[in-house]
Amino acid sequence: MKISQIVLAAALAVVSAFHAFAQTSVVRLKVVNVPVDSGLLAAVLPDFERTTGYRVEVDKRGDDLYDVVRQGTTDLAISHYGHPGVEPFLAEDLGRWPRTVFSNQAVLLGPPSDPAGIHGIQDAIEAFKRIAETKSRFLVNNAATEKYLSQILWEGAGRVDLGEWYIDRGLRDQPAIQAAESMGAYVLWGVVPFLKFKEASQSTLEALVTDDPLFQRIMVSIVPDPAKFAGINLSGGVALQTYLAAPATQAKIRAFRYPGFDHQLFWPAARDNSPSFLSAIQPAATTISFDAASVRAGGTMSAIFAGTNISEQTYFDVRFRAPGATTDDVALNWQYGSSAMHTISAGTAAGTWMVTGLRAHDQPNDHSAPYVSVSTNVTVLP
Prior knowledge:
By secondary structure, this protein is of the alpha+beta class. It has 3 domains: 3-103 and 216-279, 3-Layer(aba) Sandwich (D-Maltodextrin-Binding Protein, domain 2); 105-213, Periplasmic binding protein-like II (D-Maltodextrin-Binding Protein, domain 2); 284-381, Immunoglobulin-like (Sandwich), CATH 2.60.40.1930. Helix content is 32%, strand content 29%. It has 12 helices and 18 strands. Strands 1, 2, 3, 4, 7, 8, 9 and 10 form an 8-stranded mixed beta sheet that branches. β14 and β15 (329-336) form a beta hairpin. α6 packs across α7 (144-156). The protein is elongated and about 90 Å long. Residues 1-22 have low confidence and may be disordered.
């Protein structure tokens, strides 16, 4: 083989290796519109990317979500459990078991005059009873889930007489909302599409009943089966799935608010998963890095931990070996949060200090997990 051919082959090998790394460092997420349009993913994904080194490519989809997943270009899919593509996808054994992650919700909308006086009621059936008793107009939104909710409200209210106040024009989604506004009627719709619609149209409708669990609609995350789809980033997809189910992320999901709307939009649902799945969701630190290879005694250095399911509320234990030592020592709760600045005390022994193990944990007194072995050095100068 000529030298030029050898060089070319080596160059192609390097490019191929780089391309493979670039691919595995990306997690391709296909997701329905609500978590994207609300801003939820923009709020929770940066911490995942910072602590794991993965980069998430978000692709917002509608009813065709699982058609796209079938093309083998997805590492994790998030949709409503009742999405029309979920059942056939799983029935054909194309994905792993779905994991509940959170619920979004519908709201009962109405005119600012609120003729039935339902504003702030947390019981949606009681609110519907008042609408019926006052014969205030109620327009059926014929979107599948909202129409189903209307039927539950009617049943729960004791099958009240449906007179002229109960209007069904066969409309669904935005056309139904626009019609309800024009006639001063109450109507059901998803809270996120309503907020986006209100921003764009300056609608006068208001979200009057928001917090009934009846309004919640659960979402699941599904990892495609790597045996059925070549090129799946299995480790990345699983890492993102477990991150979304981690207690710290679930708390962030609960606390998330849409600008100008001080009500909860998403309801954590990871606790509905199996105990075996939940017990496996533990923080794990796999690397530690310092901002400099050496530091003088009395100086400062920053340490950054990376891994899975770690956050700014994670504690880190460090196993280390001092200069000249033959055995390891440990520093419990050496750092709180994935990055922090440390002052090297003046009496610290000069030489190379080796970090040999890392342990991440959420509770300050829980040191039960095994260490993850690493080998990272920092030199202390006199």
